[in-house]
Design a protein that fits this description.
Radius of gyration: 13 Å
Distance between the termini: 40 Å
Order of helices and strands: EEEEEEEEEEE
Structural class: mainly beta
Shape: globular
Number of strands: 11
Number of helices: 0
Length: about 130
């Protein structure tokens, strides 16, 4: 089965940086759309960033555009999310997701597009 394992979360001061990693295994389609989502306590899950490894297309939520960068290392089967200029409102549990067979298009931040999810990694940003 497809397995996604996130790592790299932690606690940082506002303005700091973190790089999250998502190790994927068992993927049938290596060019699957991959996404990052986050959910803060008491709030709705929201899409953060997504990438289509096969075509190099990337997508960002307005709230993180210019601060976060999504990338991948196909040889390592790893998805990354580099988060710069972190703000307290970025505090959330961050989840890696894989569509499996779908390539990124409109609707990349619709969680129903993704069939596989990791367990999450916590990011806490303090003032």
């Amino acid at each position: 089965a497809v397995q996604l394992v996130e790592s790299g979360g932690g606690s940082v001061q506002a303005g700091g940086s973190l790089r999250l990693s998502c190790l994927a295994s068992g993927m049938t389609d290596s060019s699957s759309c991959m996404g990052w989502f986050r959910q803060a306590p008491g709030k709705q899950r929201e899409g953060v960033a997504a990438v289509w490894p096969g075509g190099g297309s990337s997508y960002y939520a307005d709230s993180v555009k210019g601060r976060f960068t999504v990338s991948q290392d196909n040889a390592k089967n790893t998805l990354y999310l580099l988060m710069n200029s972190l703000k307290p409102e970025d505090t959330a549990m961050y989840y890696c997701a894989a569509a499996g067979t779908w390539r990124c298009s409109i609707g990349v931040f619709n969680s129903d597009r993704y069939a596989y999810w990791g367990q999450g990694t916590q990011v806490t940003v303090s003032s």
